[in-house]
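Case study.
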Amino acid sequence: MSWVSGQSRSRSSPAWLALRRLAARAAARDSPLRQADWLLLATVLALTSLGTLMIWSATQPALLAQGANPHGFLLKQLLNIALGLVLMLVVGSLDARQLRLLAPVVYGLSCLGLVAVLTPLGTIVNGAKSWISLGAGFQIEPSEFAKLSVIVISAMLLSQPAAKTRPAAARPGAKAIGKALGLGAVPILLVAAEPDLGVMIVLVLLVVGLIAVSGVRLRWLAGMVAAGVLAVTAVAQLHLLKAYQISRLTSFLNPSADPRGTGYSAAQSKIAIGSGGLHGTGLFHSQMVAGNFVPEQHTDFIFAVIGNELGFIGSTATLGLLALLMIGALRIATQAEDQFGMLVAAGIAIWFAVQAFVNIGMTVGIMPVTGLPLPFVSYGGSAMFADMIAVGLLQSVRRHRNVFAS
Amino acid sequence: MIPASRPRLVVLYVVVAALLLGLAVRVWYLQVKTGTSYVAQAASERVREVIQPPVRGPIVDDNGAPIVDSHSELVISVSMPTLWRQADGGAAVLRRLSGLLHMRHRKLLDEVRLCTVGVSQPCWTGSPYQPIPVAENVPATIGLQVLENQRLYRGVTAAVQPVTHYRQPISTALAQTIGYLQPITAAELRQQGLPVTGFSGVDLVGQAGLELQYDTALRGVPGDTKLAVNAAGQVTGTLSSVKPRPGDYLVTSINSAVQQDAERALASAVQRSQLAGSAVSKGGAAVVMTTTGRILALASYPTYNPSVWTGGISRGEFGRLFGRGGGEPILDRPTQGEYAPGSTWKVTSVAAAVAAGYPINGSYQCPAAVNIGGRSYANDGNPSLGAMSFYTALVQSCDTVFYELAYQIYLKDHPRANDVRSPHAPVQEMQKMELAWGFGRPTGVDLPGESPGSVPTRAWLYYLWKDNAHKGQDWCKNGRQNGSYIQQIEWDDCQFGNVWTAGQAVIAAIGQGYVSVTPLQLARAYAALANGGTVYSPRLGEALISPAGKVVRRITPPVAGHLPVKKSVLAYIRHALAGVVTSGTAAGAFGGFPLGRVCVAGKTGTAQVNGTQSTSVFASFAPCDHPRYVVVMMIPNSGYGAEVSGPAVRQIWDGIYGLEGQKAALPGGVLPGMPRLNQAGQLVPAGGQAPRPSPSAGHGAGQGRKRHR
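After joint prediction, the assembly is written out as follows.
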């Protein structure tokens, strides 16, 4: 402790005592720092660093050409990451009980946000009314937080045993499942109204996945899947999807059919990734990236930049980091003793897995083009905050894995 | 967690792993398996190249004052095909444009109509598919109005383009030497591997004169911006951007004042001769520095204003420049005109005679006429002057002295080789001397298209005969032994055209017959005589200076050879030429000239040419004892050297030294040093005096300098 002691500072001063207390708490066995999953944190930092570099490379030439600060996006993303880390620390320091209590609040707030988007407060970006402008150039995307809220509210509902008499073997009852489906449907429908297809897919899979993981009977699960198939058929038959959504959904099957329209992004992205080859063109060395051939290359299509500049080696490294992230989340789920914590962790794993697959899948031409960012890598504040809060939740679940152990 | 959840989590593990594995396989397929095909696709991605033409470097005189320069100006152009496609044929657009430009509507309509049969100037001479410039140096506000209201001005463009400015009156005085610029042809583009800007009016290249000679340096390097263009044709980004680099300054040794004096003197000499009844139509003059081989002035008559080339030359102007009727002002007489030098040639004949063993201080007979080969060769005016020295022979310009000497040398000079039909026959002694003085071959001046002149060596005669006996003039077919006078000569030429005869030898000794020289050749030979024997390859260019002020290349006239003549003999000849002006054939022309202030030495020449009047020649240098400059003038078909060219050369000397009421172009006869680029990006005289009131800021050199700092 001598490293903080100075000549002018007395060892009995209040500041010194407060510091000692803090250090002692940090070093204690149950302290959030001692209990933190450092591998997970390292993975997250590696992904954000990679993303920041790629954003820098992707935006610098265009900013230079406009005469703007070439580091504009880089600095903003660094700020996003810093704020995200603070949010992660705050959320990570909460315990499971507090999380459970907060779940309805989070859910209510995010539903309100989604409603606000549909009012004149919302702004339209790329055909979807999914942003709220906060003025001074700041915008917020409530659908990012809707994912979190669906996870916590579903986890809360599905972790309440049906019969209090047999808590050990308690599967969620029909009532809980009904509540989960009902409360899940509200944000799903609100997002569908924006319309934001990507988020909708994530939310639907989250609700279905969480119900599945919650231990519901298999036949109920089969029934749900059947109902889902029926619903999709109905949507197709009743023309509930907008024309641009249908074309987005189908164009990935044959991108060259309409190179000027919806297939353009997909085709350019495939060319960018394919031409990266084994080693890529090198960071900051891609003419394709400098030429902005792939639209939205710093946000949704960031993986195209990775593939083009870093090649197959960089692409697989990114996939490896994402795998570490998901394994980290799933391990926390497996180790969680309480059902709520397990469901939160599993939900986060499902979220990241679905979103990463849909995002990268669209850049490599095996998924439709939807506006989903790559977790921790794509540029964007709302997404970064939501992702970081999710990591905070994982850390919290991990720390309290033994709290409810009988 | 409840036990039922555990297997579900295992399934989730498997699903996540499968998703990631699927992505990895897909990425491997794209990047490793089929990667090369995408590399090819990426390379063929649409890249649009925008070429910005560089501003052409100016040509400046020895003080740094511009003769020709270019400025970037906002130019309003009209694309006729776009106008024609409009419902009213573009009438509304043109009416609006004439209002915007404060230009009479009628005038605008005339400028954009195409020159075809029955359409007189003004009209557009270029391609109808090329934007037609209708207003140059337009204020930016008008340009912006055009660009921002494209709905109102469809087919009208405003773009910054280099515009060539010919400074007057110097560029008219120097028109042929400057040369001209013309749109580059497709073949030239390919040959030089140049990028196409898409606006052919901008791709100007030098086609003659200094503009052609120094084209690569003057042209600069075009700017090149590569824009990424998406499938919809929208510009999505800038891949690379290289700013255009303006061309270098070409500093010449042309002294504008001397040049204008020379042009004026030449023109007035021609006009005086015309008034006296001669059919003279052309002439050339050259002013050369003896000790360096630099050219101070090259005057050609007739001349023209090179501004006719800007914005496309009209058919009429083109015809006038290249037509015989207008005296072919396009030709550069000082380097392309080949005229008989007449008695100015005798300096080489004296040197040849001394080389052949005739003593410099010897005595030679000057009878009224000599009989050689059955023909009588007489002095002009048939005076018989008795025995005389070479000094007097030059001062009085006695022909018979040189006839006799040439004949004697001819008799001893490989007589059996005179009718050998071979290019390898030995060169005659006198012609060897003439070649050594730089005649009969190009001077190597930094101008394209120079004429070599002719010295009738045996090989030269052989080629003349070979080229005309059975082809060319076809002497053997057209000639008749008993036909007309011309036919008889042709028959004779067919039989003996290759034979070096005594008659040719003697008239060649006085600069007639087959002998022809360009004014510049004569000037450099006299410069060699004046400087003690160094024959230079003359140069107009002094240096190339980059827009940043760095001297890219210093141009020094190379030494082409040395006269095989003793210094004492050259001094003797110089002494005699001083006598020509004080007491000889040029004494009249220089009567009253302040020789006490500047001693001028020279030689008159009056070459009789069959069927026309004499070629009037005057070759001179000054000061007599330490010559610095040579002034030469040749005017064919005009009269005596002493009467036409002599007084005109005197005028040029007056201008150089500031004599007889003239303002001195070179005070004290001293040349200015190399100009340099000042902080403001202007070329200023070496002395550091205030620059002449001639803005050269438009060249962008100022900005260029700032950029480089």
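Observations recorded in class. Residues 177 and 211 of chain A are 7 Å apart (CA to CA). Chain A has a mean pLDDT of 83. We will return to this complex in the next lecture.
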